[in-house]
Design goal:
This protein is of the alpha+beta class. It has helices at residues 5-16, 22-39, 96-99, 170-184, 190-193, 203-213; strands spanning 46-52, 66-67, 72-84, 87-90, 92-93, 114-118, 131-135, 143-150. The protein has six helices and eight strands, in the order ααβββββαβββααα.
Amino acid sequence: MALTSAQICALARQISHCTGFLTQSGELLNMILSDLAQTQDLELCRGVFNFNFIADNGSGNGMGPYPLPLDYLRHTRDGVFFTIDGVKYSLVNYDQSEFDLLVTTPGLANYPTVFYTDISPLNEDPPSNPNMYVWQPSSGTFPVTVRYYRNLPDITTPETSDVIPWFPNQNYLITELAGQLMKLTDDTRAREFISDDPSGLGSGNLLRQFVQNQGSDDEGKAKTVSLDRRRFGYRFSRLPSTKQVGW
C-alpha cells in the first residue's frame, strides 16, 4: 500500500533522528518532488496542450506569441506538431538566437517549420504563461499539439497530508528526504544517503535505476541516433532564403 506524504515525512525524520523537524520535512519533500519534475524527463510528468495557429494578416502576427500552460517546463522529443487534413507536420526547435536571425519580411506566410519557446515569463511575480513563437508566420488556423513535461504542484502541508506523492518510488523519497534532513544537522551519514554510487543504496542510485527502467513498453525497441533537425530537417525547412523571400 502506498504511503502518504505524512508517513514518508515521519519515516524520514525517524531515520535521520530529526523527530522535531516537522515543518522542515514537509518543505524538503516538496523541494525533492519539484527537483524531480525539473531535472528528469519522467513519463509521469507528461502533459498535452492543444491550441490553434492564427492566420497571419501580413503583420507577422501568425508567428505568435502563443501562450503555453503555466506548468510548462519543456517539450518532449518531436512533441510539437500541427495537423492539416489529417497530415501531421512536426516543428523543429530553435534557440532564440537562431530564431531572431530568421527573415520576417512583411506578408511572409506559409506552413510553420520551426519554433522556439520563451519561458522567462515564469520568473515574473506573479508568474505568467510562457510563450511559443513559430516561423514562418502561419498561413492558416491549423490545430497544434504540444506534448510537454509538466511542473507538478506542491503538496499542501505534506508533513500532515494524506496525499500520496505523485512519484511512485517511495524508497527513493524516504532515502533522499532523510539525507536532506541529515544535512540540516550536519549528520555524517548524509553523504551516504544521497550518494549515487552504483554499489551503494543511496538515493542517487535508486533514482538512476528508476529512470533507466521507466517506460517498460519500450522493451525490445531498437534505439536510434538522430541528426540535428536544424541542419538535417525536412526538405522544405532546408531551402535557402532565396526560395522563400525572393531576392
